[in-house]
Amino acid sequence: MSKNRTQLETFAVQAGHYVDPATGAVVPPVQPSTTYARNEDYSLRLDYSYSRAGNPALDQAEKILAELEGGQSAKLFNSGMSAVTAFAETLRSGDRLVAPEIMYHGAQTWFYYLQEHRGIELVLFDQTQEGALEEAVRGGDTKVLWIESPVNPTWEVIDIEYAAKLAHEAGAILVCDSTVAPPCTCKPLELGADIVFHSATKYLNGHSDLTAGVLVTRSEDDRWDQIEFARLHLGNLLPAFEAWLLIRGMRTLFVRFERASANALVIAEHFNNHSKLEAVLYPGLADHPGHDIAGKQMTKGFGGMMSFLVKGSEEQTQKVARSVRVFHAATSLGGVESLIEHRKVVEGPHSVVPGNLLRLSIGIEAVGDLIADLDQALGQI
Ligand SMILES: *Cc1c(COP(=O)(O)O)cnc(C)c1O
Questions:
Q1: Would strands 96-100 and 121-125 be described as parallel, antiparallel, or unpaired?
Q2: Within this chain, do residues 69 and 125 fall inside the same structural domain, yes or no?
């Protein structure tokens, strides 16, 4: 089979079928130089001139991500929020931006900032209410519909294909934050999204040792040029070492995600209907209201993210998070190690997340250890 016809999993494992042209190395090198000497005629040797504009490991990482998402082009940033703010630079005063009420709180906080200081019309829709998305998109001259699915940290499922249809009918674009549903299971561009965003800090890297963000576009249009311009001048591209580390992380994306999804399903089923819990929120459960749509758009597993609603007070809920011995009581998600957090405390005083919600990021450890740990922690209340 020719190399360019392999499956995506093979492409990711082989770092985009990388072979170093000079040495034959199967791992891409890191180029730490900030500057690149020119030829005698002052032309550039390759396309590199200065590190704020690009580096070879970045190009390779972007090539892998564009391929995995099925997009024309990818751009990496030094954090997920850098990618969000660079995208936001393409919004103009008066533009209508529609997003869910519950979503990644950092991005939403920035959207509020844009509303207050840059004249952006921010419209939030209740993702639990039928018809709310339609009303928000159609209620004005919407320019951008920004969604995430499943939404963090309550894990309601938004139908990406339907959201794309609505956005396009309104003359808007759809941007999908697919951080918790990486391309090994979900392909928002194929479902109609125009841009897909990830905090690559999470599943894409997977080892909790790197902060990065990525945007992948269906087509290199005028907005994409603005994003490139913003990244160059805001100076927030992903540096060489981090790009290299991300390539290494992505080599195991498919196996990590498969194992995390399998562990999560066992845990969700074990704790569903547990006497100390009001609910387990996980789209992989057959009784989750978004299960069917999630199954349609997450074709290779529902991932490792879920939440527990504890039968008890905020104080008792925190006590469960404090009582774990195998899980780490820490924020973030998508790493190989399992994490638990009291989300409301992490989001701060403005959080709309219920006080009895614990967010779990299930890793790839032995699932029996994770179940025993949660059982003993719940036993403390
Ligand atoms: C973490 C996260 C972000 C922000 O990314 P950073 O890498 O922390 O800047 C955005 N969206 C979601 C869903 C996230 O989990």
A1: parallel
A2: yes
Structure tokens at 203: 């599943």
Are residues 158 and 265 both part of a single domain?
no
- Residues 194 and 261 reside in one and the same domain: no
360: left (phi over 0), alpha (psi -120 to 50) or beta: beta
Q: How far is ligand 1, taken at its centre, from the CA of residue 87, in Å?
A: 14
How many Å apart are CA 193 and CA 164, to the nearest integer? 6
Residues 182 and 331 in one domain: no
List the chain pLDDT tens, one digit each, 381 residues.
445 678 999 999 999 999 999 999 999 999 999 999 999 999 999 999 999 999 999 999 999 999 999 999 999 999 999 999 999 999 999 999 999 999 999 999 999 999 999 999 999 999 999 999 999 999 999 999 999 999 999 999 999 999 999 999 999 999 999 999 999 999 999 999 999 999 999 999 999 999 999 999 999 999 999 999 999 999 999 999 999 999 999 999 999 999 999 999 999 999 999 999 999 999 999 999 999 999 999 999 999 999 999 999 999 999 999 999 999 999 999 999 999 999 999 888 888 899 999 999 999 999 999 999 999 999 999
Distance 81 CA to ligand 1 centre (A): 6
State yes or no: is 52 an active-site residue: yes
Question: How far is residue 296 from each of residues 182, 214, 232, 269, 326, measured CA to CA in Å?
Answer: 15, 24, 38, 20, 33
241 and 264 part of one domain: no
Q: Quick one: 243 and 94 in the same domain?
A: yes
Enclosing domain of residue 185: 5-250
- CATH number of the domain where residue 45 is located: 3.40.640.10
- Residues 128, 140 within the same domain: yes
Residues with CB under 6 A from ligand 1: 79-81, 104, 106-107, 148, 152, 177, 179-180, 199, 201-202, 211, 213, 333
